[in-house]
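Reply to thread "Modeling small-molecule complexes from scratch"

Following up on the discussion above, here's a worked example others can learn from. I took a protein sequence and the SMILES for manganese (II) ion and predicted the complex. Inputs first:
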Amino acid sequence: MLLESYKIASHNDSLLKGHENKLAFTRSEIAGTEEIIQKLVDFQIAIPSWALGTGGTRFGRFAGGGEPRTLEEKIEDVGLLHTLNKASGAISLHIPWDIPTDPKAIRALAAQHGLKFDAVNSNTFQDQADQEHTYKFGSLQNVNKAIRKQAIDHNIEVIKHGIELGSDSLTVWLSDGSCFPGQLNFRKAYQNTLESLQEIYAALPDDWKIFVEYKAFEPNFYSMTVGDWGQSLSYARKLGDKAYTLVDLGHHLPNANIEQIVSLLLMEEKLGGFHFNDSKYGDDDLTAGSVKPYQLFLIFNELVEGMDARGMNHAKDLGWMIDASHNVKDPLEDLLQSVEAIMIAYAQALSVDRKALEDAQENNDVVRAQEILQNAFRTDVRAIVAEARLRAGAALNPVALYRELKVRENLIAERGLKTVSTGL
Ligand SMILES: [Mn+2]
């Protein structure tokens, strides 16, 4: 479904007066708003192809209707999101769920929608129908060399698809691990995984990156072979300059200090990318910022501070992606909410008085340091996030416009009620 620009313009006209009043107040509260707005305009968050349909749990899946049936329709959906918010200008594909049969045509379609291809994702956490060996006991870690080779070959295949699409990074998330004590020799599992990753790394083009994603538990519940940032960092260091750690917010043990982790990974020059989601208990994959918005702000606070300390480009030097999936919302509305929450946290982090915070830290003024951070978190930045959208040609209120235009009803009429987009 294409969204004509006059519809956005008329939506914006109807909200403009209220917006300008709020923006004027926000400008009086926050210094340097122009610079913040420009950074927000530049900041893009990749949408994963698997989040466009209703996610499943282990217990069931409740399709919402009108879900994209093909890669082309997935690109159209991300294009629609990008038209609404001008902050979702990239799509991240999952192979084999999204194998492009005609990469040139897919590239052209994405370009029409103003989209780039973000990291491509391999999948050795489930068996495919045509595959020779099973990953039941792991892929890159497997004790059986033929199974490791199959998983390595798959990752190299994913890189090839990525090259055809103009992507420049591969994300490897492994479900490898063990469910019971004694099942695995930890060192052998590590060594096998390292050697497998080295073969994949050797197939990376020079200007590519490989992101090694970690996860504390699930689907294996006793050990995960890339279980935390220390293990990921260890692999990334041994692999080389093109290898980085990827942080998925839901992949930590409860109460882990994720802001400290990203700060240190940045310092070590090994933070490569980010998967945004939110959670209350484990890897719940809920909407970014829906449960712990203060944590999201604190993470962005460290990201901004750490990237600035190294002179990095916020928009380009790290991979930013949503990785969420659940059952109870319209997935497109949900993604609009996630992007908005990320933008708000980023804007809040940009508004932190860095000089004052550094002074407070150097003087052990704990109260003042807390005041500075909480003041930034509690100041409403939604008007400057909306202003960034307005300047980029997007909607002042994307979710409201999505509903006004009855997008979901249109998609159901076009595609039917019982479509399935996820490969799970
Ligand atoms: Mn992830």
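What I'd highlight from this example: The chain has one domain: 5-415. The radius of gyration is 22 Å. Questions welcome below.
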